[in-house]
Design a protein that fits this description.
Ribosomal Protein L22, Chain A, about 25% helix, 5 helices
Length: about 250
């Protein structure tokens, strides 16, 4: 897979395809002010409840950009996009027209969109720092490989594993109800199928996982519960949110 291309005019999202949109996350005062116009009252309250300075603005900008991307894909106004929560707390569209997942970090936002099959995405830029206590989130084999590396190499290797796990657990929809140390995400060439033991005796899910191209010091991965015929990675300009495309 190559890098990130500009979203083409007339983009059509087809069954079996997985589309990932990447945009710069700009929580500046102006961007946050514009975002307020697109989010719900509940989301504004959620933003105000966040503790760290800037987190609220970033949250609002991320929700607004998500609406712009989904509006573009569905050929609808971003303001018409309504969110709800699934049975297990996953963010979803009220009308369930597409499956999507959102992650942001390192000054960027990623939004994965699929017409069939649940999807999960994650991006990390070092906010999760490897420590000996975090090896408990890894399988025994992952721990063994990690400890063979030099201390300087462990951080990025751990982040790669952690990002895949986050993407996988978001795709299955249970989050950390699935113990991450039971999910082996060691993949050859950054792509493969991961077996996920589901809670409450729900069986085992097979999840397709792929690493995504990112900037230096940042890692990202996307996962889906359905097979993917094509993965497309796009750079999205938030200003495009006012110009809808068609989908089928």
């Amino acid at each position: 897979m190559g890098g990130w291309a500009a979203v083409p005019s007339g983009l059509v999202v087809r069954s079996g395809e997985l589309h990932v949109f990447r945009t710069r996350l700009d929580p500046s005062g102006k961007a946050a002010g514009e975002a307020v116009e697109l989010v719900s009252e509940e989301e504004r309250a959620m933003a105000e409840a966040l503790d760290r300075p800037g987190d609220g603005r970033a949250f609002l900008c991320a929700r607004a950009t998500t609406r712009r991307v989904l509006g573009w894909v569905l050929g609808r106004s971003p303001a018409s996009i309504e969110f709800c929560r699934s049975e297990h707390g996953r963010l979803a569209l009220v009308d369930r027209e597409v499956c999507f997942s959102v992650a942001y970090g390192g000054g960027q936002q990623l939004i994965a969109v699929s017409l069939n099959g649940a999807v999960g995405i994650d991006v990390q830029d070092g906010d999760v720092t490897y420590g000996e206590n975090l090896h408990l989130a890894l399988t025994r084999w992952e721990q063994q490989l990690l400890r063979r590396l030099s201390p300087s190499a462990r951080q990025m290797f751990f982040l790669g594993l952690w990002t895949r796990k986050e993407a996988v657990l978001r795709a299955v929809g249970y989050g950390f109800r699935v113990p991450p140390d039971e999910v082996d995400v060691l993949l050859e060439d950054g792509e493969g199928v991961v077996a996920v033991p589901l809670p409450d005796g729900a069986g085992v899910a097979e999840v397709h996982v792929r690493d995504l191209p990112t900037g230096r010091g940042t890692v990202a991965a996307v996962a889906t519960t359905g097979p993917v015929t094509d993965l497309h990675t796009w750079m999205f300009n938030p200003a495009m949110g006012a110009v809808p495309l068609n989908s089928c």
